[in-house]
Design brief:
Helix content is 1%, strand content 42%. With 267 residues, it is mostly beta strands. A 4-stranded antiparallel beta sheet has the order 1-2-3-4, with no helix packed on it. It is globular.
Length: 267
């Protein structure tokens, strides 16, 4: 998982955090981007699913660290990754008997209009929120215990909440494999499935309300109302307030894929 730490300006140094099964690495380029220095690994010997620098305070970095022996954990740094602190007070699953947090998949700093807010997505299909830069956490039960949850099913990698997009003014969209996309327009108080028009070829009902297997969901950086997703069954584009998604898979060699990027410079 790659996360940039600097503005995409030509002839400026670039820093990239990369999470791997061996730990997290920080790559720094020179101004010409012709040479790179590698720092790390941080969290040596553990799986780092995601590293997220905070654009509101670039010295703050969050890491989703997972271990088969020690479990799922969130770490935070206030000095650009020089030192890390375990950051998971309140990071507990409630309301789901006999289930526990299996893996942290994604960490997303909140929008600029909500200072201190950070979100974390975990398996089994759970969303957490911090209001104090990751010091303490609370379960977002309005989504984690959503009325449609009995229709959610784990994909091959588990029930992953792997995409969170914070669009400002209380607008949030998330994606879960395999449950689909959900949107909130009131800061996470309520959630609505947003899956109309998205196929689920592996289910008896090919266009269910929930149950789609999203692999990645992103909003356009300069037009956050426009959404894109790489699904198990195609690539789609849609609008946050739209009624349905439009299949955009034509021209691709396969409808199945995982990675997705939305360049800010290309509308």
């Amino acid at each position: 998982i790659v996360a940039g730490m600097s503005e995409p300006v030509s002839h400026q140094p670039v820093s990239l955090w990369i999470g791997t099964r061996k730990g997290a690495f920080l790559l720094r380029s020179n101004k010409d981007r012709e040479a790179w220095k590698v720092e790390g690994p941080h969290f040596r010997g553990t799986e780092v699913n995601h590293v997220a620098p905070d654009p509101r305070d670039p010295k703050r970095v969050y890491a989703a660290v997972n271990s088969a022996w020690f479990g799922a954990h969130i770490h935070a740094s206030a000095d650009g990754g020089k030192t890390w602190k375990l950051s998971e007070t309140g990071f507990e699953l409630t309301g789901l008997p006999d289930q526990s947090i299996k893996r942290v998949w994604h960490i997303e700093p909140g929008h600029a209009d909500e200072p201190g807010v950070v979100y974390a997505g975990a398996d089994p299909g759970a969303l957490f929120r911090s209001r104090d830069w990751g010091e303490t956490w609370e379960q977002v039960s309005s989504l984690t215990l959503h009325p449609t949850r009995d229709k959610w099913n784990p994909g091959a990698g588990g029930m992953c909440l792997h995409s969170v997009q914070c669009l400002g003014k209380g607008r949030i969209v998330v994606a879960i494999s395999a449950a689909g996309a959900f949107r909130s327009l009131d800061g996470g108080e309520t959630w609505e499935p947003h899956n109309q028009g998205v196929r689920a070829d592996f289910m008896p009902d090919k266009f269910p309300v929930v149950g789609q297997c999203v692999h990645k969901l992103l909003a356009h950086p300069k037009n956050p109302e426009m959404l894109y997703q790489q699904n198990h069954c195609g690539v789609y584009r849609g609008k946050l307030n739209g009624k349905k998604w439009t299949d955009a898979s034509k021209g691709l060699p396969s409808r199945f894929g995982f990675g997705l990027a939305v360049p800010a410079a290309e509308p």
